[in-house]
Amino acid sequence: MKLSFTKKLALSTTFLSALITTGISAHTLWINMSDYTPAYHPNRGAVTHLYMGWGHDYPVDGFINADDFTDVSLISPSGKKEALTKEALTLRKDGYGETKLTLSEEGLYLIAITRRTALNTTCRENGKEIAIKGPKTGHNDIVSSVYSQQFAKSVFLSGNSFTGNISRPIGHTLEIVPLTNPFALENNRSGRMKVKVLYKGKPLAFQKLQAMYEGYSQNDESSAYVSTNREGVAEIRIDHWGIWVIKTKFEVTPSDELKDKVNTERYFASLTFFVP
């Protein structure tokens, strides 16, 4: 049976979307804020709450332990970096990690989180695939062996002043750097959010990113798919107001230090922000 051009195009588009959707299929880390625009008072400052996102279903999915984080840092509009302790990530009765943030400055803030590294190996034993939390060392018939790490950032605004440099890299191995102030986008139906992707501090060319606004999907489907240019810069068309997440994944051949332990190095990064 011959298919019409329209049906062929529809099938091709569906197949391509399926391929793209699976681009970031593993559990990923992101940051949720209870209020991305808390009111600022000269004497009392501003208050918002940080909630951790983990899994597939944005904005809320699985639980994650505070012990999984090696660094949680708050960067103020003046550039001051404050390290938050693991104890600050309190565990609510519903199981979600929460941190109350008291903001002493007016302007643009960044929150940055690094998750501890993980080594996961899958091998075959007696015809069955066995999952191992550790390196491939000492195992045979390796299916996969991955060293991975995850990073997350969020931009939020205390008060109404756009003071602060949110485009300053903070040093994550894989990092999405916002080049546009999302709170300054005047028209969310035609605005462009520019970001730069860095790997070990250097621009990552032709890197794929996916983005979605809260409410678009309960799964891994995204509302926008883009790639960086030669300078590591990508533009995302903002076609909806509200909270957005951008995610990316990067894989490389293991370094000399890791090549005897794993077959792949894999890094994840996310950025959340609010569009008025």
Could you characterize what this model shows?
The protein is 6% helix and 47% strand. The chain has one helix at 5-21; strands at 28-33, 46-55, 69-75, 81-83, 90-91, 97-103, 107-115, 118-125, 128-132, 142-158, 174-178, 191-199, 202-203, 208-213, 224-227, 233-238, 242-252, 264-275. Strand 12 (191-199) and strand 13 (202-203) form a beta hairpin. It has one helix and 18 strands. The protein is mostly beta strands. The strands form three sheets. Strands 3, 4, 7, 8, 9, 10, 14, 15, 17 and 18 form a ten-stranded mixed sheet that branches. The N and C termini lie far apart (50 Å). The longest helix is centred in the N-terminal third of the chain and has 17 residues, at 5-21. The protein is globular, with a radius of gyration of 20 Å. Mean pLDDT is 83; it is low at 1-24.
Query: What is the SS-derived class?
Result: mainly beta
Give Rg in angstroms: 20 Å
**CA distance, first residue to last residue:** 50 Å
**How many individual β-strands?**
18
Give the overall pLDDT as a whole number.
Answer: 83
Helix content: under 10%
Strand content: over 45%
Low-confidence stretches: 1-24
Oligomer: single chain
Anisotropy-based shape: globular
Largest sheet: 10 strands, mixed
The helix count comes to 1
Write the element-wise H/E pattern from the N-terminal end onward. HEEEEEEEEEEEEEEEEEE
Could you give the topology of this structure?
Blueprint: H1 5-21, E1 28-33, E2 46-55, E3 69-75, E4 81-83, E5 90-91, E6 97-103, E7 107-115, E8 118-125, E9 128-132, E10 142-158, E11 174-178, E12 191-199, E13 202-203, E14 208-213, E15 224-227, E16 233-238, E17 242-252, E18 264-275
Parallel strand pairs: 10-18
Antiparallel strand pairs: 1-2, 2-6, 3-4, 3-7, 5-6, 7-10, 8-9, 8-10, 11-12, 12-13, 12-16, 14-15, 14-17, 17-18
